[in-house]
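haha ok so turns out i had the wrong file open the whole time. this is the CORRECT one, sorry everyone. sequence first:
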Amino acid sequence: MLDIRIIREQTDLVRHSIAMRHLDPDKTNLDRLISLDDMWRKEQGRVDELRGKRNEISSSIKDLAGESRQTAVERVKEIKKELSELESHLETLKEERDLLLKRMPNLLAEDTPIGHTDEDNLEISRWGEVKALPFKPRDHVELGSITDTIDFDRAGKVAGSNFYYLKNEAALLELALCQYASGQLVPRGFYPYLNSRYGPRRNPGGHWLCSSRPGDAGL
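then structure:
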């Protein structure tokens, strides 16, 4: 995910990268993202200010008495109410901003060739010889269908186009690769995580994560 600081500080660079990818500006919603971030930062500043004021008044109540004490108590209640409303709106702004942020493409390298299709790609290097096959090769979509190892139709109904389910031998291969990776990484100081699939929709993530243990050198 692109760092929000890059978008704040290098907006023109981000906009240029989007244009070079030939993406629809209305779908990337960079301007909306910037607007939401500005609103979030202003409201966060207001929330921090009110929290400081609430804590200051709360600390002084013990030294007050009579009407002054009651006035301070009422003021703290007013601030708490205002904070509750602001924090709720702040969370809404953050959720919408972060959703757009996750959709923002990474920046292109300066030397990236620009093109509209894969036919515009430049060959940088080649290793070995391309074998001349005596038959027309099939792509992964056709092979997955023939071998009954990839289900595009069902995944498309659930999650939309460009998604797929691995099944049968392909699913077993995926599990084997995860097991192989864990067998290599755990002895080197990494530990596995399983992310709940029942988490908030706004915070999707992979189900397999590895992270180095705190204090491990060289990891």
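The helical segments are 4-9, 11-20, 25-28, 30-61, 66-103, 140-147, 152-159, 168-185.
again sry for the mixup
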